[in-house]
């Protein structure tokens, strides 16, 4: 398939976007915009998107991604609580960088999730992309975990997730969602820059 055919198929795919997918994409982008601003509304808007994607991923046979969105929903509730915590009127949780030890834990967590997801998808589902699906899901698990803790590095994992998800969703027929991940990739890079500046300004 040449570039022209790919672009044509992509445009046709976007035209065929269902209302459900459209709503999920819009709220997903809104959620990331709030995250970049360190605004707690990242969580309620994100929950709307992730709940819709649980359904969309199941019917698209992206089982690991469905599990990711279920995980997103649970972690969004936990993150919402953590971000809302205050002491003497001040926010308790601040943006910080991961230590070497925390980086090690993240990498082990990511690799462990990827291996487990790949094996489950390969042997217990009819997924045709278990390796890619598992990779995107594992990086997303890691990113969400760090986001709830307001770790700067969450944006690095979101960048990885978005890069992996663009082709993954495209080949499964979710062209508009694939485009969403392209937008989210740009926003993740911007988020990394914004949070880095906040850390420098606040001295955390």
Helix/strand layout:
Layout: H1 3-15, H2 19-36, H3 42-59, H4 63-84, E1 86-87, E2 90-91, H5 100-124, H6 130-148, H7 154-171, H8 175-202
Antiparallel strand pairs: 1-2
Helix pairs in contact: 2-3, 2-8, 3-4, 4-6, 5-6, 6-7, 7-8
Sum this structure up briefly.
The protein is 79% helix and 2% strand. By secondary structure, it is mainly α.
- Spans of at least 5 consecutive residues with low confidence: none
Count all strands and give the number: 2
Number of helices: 8
Radius of gyration: 17 Å
Transmembrane segments: 16-34, 41-63, 69-85, 106-125, 155-171, 177-195
Protein name: Nicotinamide riboside transporter PnuC
Membrane topology: Multi-pass membrane protein
Organism: Pinibacter soli
Notable traits:
2 strands; 79% helix; mainly alpha; 204 residues; 8 helices; two-stranded antiparallel ribbon
Protein architecture, described:
The protein is an all-alpha fold. It has one domain (3-85, 97-202). 79% of the residues lie in helices and 2% in strands. The chain is built from eight helices and two strands; from the N terminus they run H-H-H-H-E-E-H-H-H-H. The protein has helices at residues 3-15, 19-36, 42-59, 63-84, 100-124, 130-148, 154-171, 175-202; strands at residues 86-87, 90-91. A two-stranded antiparallel ribbon has the order 1-2. A hairpin with a 2-residue loop joins strand 1 and strand 2. Helix 2 packs parallel to helix 8 and helix 3 (42-59) runs antiparallel to helix 4 (63-84). The longest helix has 28 residues, at 175-202. The mean pLDDT is 87. It comes from Pinibacter soli. Its main location: membrane. Belongs to the nicotinamide ribonucleoside (NR) uptake permease (TC 4.B.1) family. Keywords: Cell membrane, Membrane, Transmembrane, Transmembrane helix, Transport.
């Amino acid at each position: 398939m040449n570039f022209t055919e790919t672009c044509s198929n992509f445009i046709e795919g976007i035209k065929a976007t269902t209302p459900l997918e459209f709503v999920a994409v819009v709220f997903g982008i809104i959620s990331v915009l709030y995250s970049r601003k360190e605004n707690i509304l990242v969580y309620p808007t994100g929950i709307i998107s992730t709940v819709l994607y649980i359904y969309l991923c199941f019917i698209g046979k992206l089982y690991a991604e469905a599990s990711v969105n279920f995980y997103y929903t649970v972690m969004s509730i936990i993150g919402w609580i953590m971000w809302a915590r205050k002491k003497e009127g001040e926010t308790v949780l601040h943006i910080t960088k991961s230590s070497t030890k925390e980086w090690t834990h993240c990498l082990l967590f990511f690799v462990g999730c990827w291996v487990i997801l790949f094996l489950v998808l390969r042997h217990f589902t009819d997924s045709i992309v278990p390796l890619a699906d598992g990779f995107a899901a594992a990086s997303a698990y890691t990113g969400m975990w760090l986001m709830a803790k307001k770790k700067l590095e969450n944006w690095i994992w979101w960048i990885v997730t978005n890069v992996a998800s663009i082709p993954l969703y495209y080949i499964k027929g979710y062209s508009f969602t694939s485009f969403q991940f392209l937008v989210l990739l740009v926003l993740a890079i911007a988020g990394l820059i914004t949070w880095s500046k906040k850390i420098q300004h606040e001295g955390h």
